[in-house]
Amino acid sequence: MQSAIILILLTIIAIATGALSIYxxxxxxxxxxxxxxxxxxxxxxxxIQSTLKNKSATNAVAEHAEMIYQDLxxxxxxxxxxxxxxxxxxxxxxxxxxxxxxxxEYAKNPFALEKLRRAIKLDSEVIRNIDNxxxxxxxxxxxxTTTEPDGLLSSTFxxxxxxxxxxxxxxxxQLANQSD
Length: 180
Prior knowledge:
Elements: H1 2-82, H2 94-108, H3 111-122, H4 124-147, H5 152-159, H6 161-178
Helix pairs in contact: 1-2, 1-4, 2-6, 3-4, 3-6, 4-5, 4-6
């Protein structure tokens, strides 16, 4: 009888130990899955934080864009007057109309480059405005490049009217300096 009781107790202990082992394995699996989920959530939060930080930097640029645009435009107006070019007649921002007018005129009439070269040679105010425009545009492009990780916005400006105008003005300056 005692051996039967001992056998029953050993069976109960073995079953309890087996059940406890299964429970511990399941709990361990759940904890592992929970750790993976938390790690994934942490990585997502880091990505979200990075994206928000980058958007914040881009928004700061956008907020200051009007001041930057006006500063660039103030240097373009005397240049356009010196070479007798009118801005585009479009609903764009005044800076893009001015740049568009310059680049449209150059596309229609390559003599616009020669007119700008002459203006550079004859009027120190024109070269001062060109230098100011190019310096400020370069600073703006550099700022865009450093604040935007994927470079989409900065490449848009560089490949667009801003970059084209920088190349046009640099070419005119180089021609003016060569013909001394």
